[in-house]
Amino acid sequence: MKIESLHLIDYRNIENMDIEFAPGVNLLYGNNAQGKTNILEAIYMCAAGRSLRTHISKELIRFSRESAHIQLIADKGMYKDKINIHIRKNNKKGIAINNVHVKSINELFGTVNIILFSPEDLMLVKEGPSCRRRYMDMELCQLSRIYADNLSRYYRLLKERNTLLKEEKADNVTLDVYDSQLVDYGIKIIEERQRFINEIDIKSNLIHSDITKGRESLEVRYIPDVNINNYEKRMRESREKDIIYRSTSTGIHRDDISFDINGFNAREYGSQGQQRTICLSLKLAEVEFVKEKTGYSPVLLLDDVLSELDRSRQLYILNSIKNIQTVITSTGIDDIVENIDDDIKILYVSEGKIEEK
Fold it and tell me: Coil, strand or helix: which one is 10?
């Protein structure tokens, strides 16, 4: 799968922009705050249905304008998909695939498969569990609309249960109904997350060993808050505490991932360089995972991440992106151009405008 083109109107600082992407490496370069990341964000919107930087959709609209528009065309070989996203100031979005309106964001998942690697992702090991859950869910939602539906239903039920607890109207009969449904959806999510992490563990360990020339062994472990066999029991046992604290304390919304290097917890004992190597290994493992599941490579988005890595890790990424459509943002071009053997399309971004070099 390749992204053929992107058209933006009144999106962030971009008034009107058309981009034709090359099937290989596309380099967006220019000074900071000129619109490079806005382009990646728009691509991300077409894959995930939401921004990677804000939950307030109207912030995506250019100043003094009433709406913004994104159009992306993805070439899948035998056919093409056209995605249109219209963003209004009332914070609502209209999404259409091949001119057919979709009612739920879940219907968008899988139309475009992307893997985003940004400086924030380098903090995946150090940050809190919510970042690591988001890492799992983003990939699984793109690959399975059933997973996306189960996840959205779970969080809708969780919100309703928490609202009930806060309003002090919680009775055991009503809570029994919520708990039963939360357990049903939670078990399905646990099973998918476990399968995903098992495969990522194998793939990332091989990549990590290659990067470190065999000096380090990486183990990625899924740490569920509850397991399938005791989920219902744990919900019953935590009910009294939930009523007191007015919040659901047990479930898949408290899951985590652990990273061990040579048997030691990387979050507690790993150096910054080791933690960043883990993140790089995970992202490249995702590429392989998506290839296996879909039969084609995802689009790789590298948002100024090369400047955050040392020379050896930069070269490893650049050597790994052959035969993968990649969009890279950077403030410079020399190091990237010198180390990519394939043809590279270079686009200069300044003040929301783009020029091919």
Answer: strand
